[in-house]
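We examine the record.
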Amino acid sequence: MGETIAGVQIPDSVLAREATELVRDAAPPLLFDHSRRVFLFGVLRGREQGLAFDPELLYVGAMFHDLGLTERFRRTDQRFEIDGADEARRFLAGHGITGDRADRVWTAVALHTTPEIPLHMAPEVALVTRGVELDVLGIGYDAVSDEQRAAVVAAHPRPDFKKQILAAFTDGIKDRPLTTFGNVKADVLAHFVPGFRRGDFVEVIQGSDWPE
């Protein structure tokens, strides 16, 4: 029988257990605990909204969503979200999961920092974003009960989380600043990397090779 937190059962399949171990080995406790909270909050938000979803796929999406911030899986030539999404697809393929099910997980990870759009997609995609938004931004804070929130945090504490997660974001993307063009992580570098200048959409249009 798998572990239950705040009335949510953690998937206990071979796939889920291997996902847990992969992330536990690759990520610091900060990101591991955050990823587990994202799953738990995602499930709670899904129940509150009456959504039907695959808990196993949601679990993999939640656990892999920040994998691109880790030393083992980060690259410097693409957005960190895509690092995690690509690794999730490889992991699922290794367990015989391809096609639509793998696509849902890839999309959930790749779009988890893109506001609003994921919420109109498959439940697994929407709920990874819901979980991230609740844990990082406090969006939907009151959509779960005080008791549920306390149980999640008791199982996966968040000491000094605001400061620590911002430091993790900065460390994971500072070597690929161009990948933050047009997304929320440009705000992180603007605050914490001296000399960073965010890309400007208007300047890109005006400076393109088109004569007019």
